[in-house]
């Protein structure tokens, strides 16, 4: 997917297209693009937040998990607890 394609998807997302949101989440997850996932999660997508937690967990990004947990995300808190208990 080209940057132009991604820009078009972002524009569709900004206009409220749920299919575009789903596609962006999937692509960002595949690329490990935490910035894109964070942006989508902060815009209110719980699916993006879940994907962000998954990527952060896979990468062992404790700072991101802490940030999410500190903002009230219970799934991130659970993942952080599991990782720190191991």
Describe how the helices and strands are arranged:
Layout: H1 3-14, H2 18-31, H3 34-42, H4 46-59, H5 62-70, H6 74-85
Helix pairs in contact: 1-2, 2-3, 2-4, 3-4, 5-6
Give your account of this protein's structure.
- The chain is mainly α.
- 81% of the residues lie in helices and 0% in strands.
- It contains six helices and no strands.
- The protein has helices at 3-14, 18-31, 34-42, 46-59, 62-70, 74-85.
- Helix 2 (18-31) runs parallel beside helix 4 and helix 5 (62-70) packs across helix 6.
- The longest helix is centred in the first third of the chain and has 14 residues, at 18-31.
Topology order in helix (H) and strand (E) letters: HHHHHH
Q: Report the biggest beta sheet as strand number plus sense, adding barrel if it closes.
A: none
User: What structural class results from the helix and strand content?
Assistant: mainly alpha
What is the arithmetic mean of pLDDT?
A: 94
- Poorly predicted spans: none
What distinguishing features does this structure have?
86 residues; mainly alpha; 81% helix
What's a concise summary of this model?
By secondary structure, the protein is mainly α.
């Amino acid at each position: 997917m080209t940057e132009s394609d991604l820009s078009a998807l972002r524009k569709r997302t900004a206009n409220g297209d749920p299919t575009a949101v789903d596609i962006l989440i999937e692509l960002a997850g595949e690329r490990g693009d935490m910035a894109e996932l964070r942006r989508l999660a902060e815009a209110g997508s719980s699916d993006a937040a879940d994907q962000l937690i998954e990527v952060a967990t896979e990468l062992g990004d404790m700072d991101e998990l802490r940030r999410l947990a500190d903002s009230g995300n219970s799934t991130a808190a659970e993942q952080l607890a599991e990782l720190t208990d191991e």
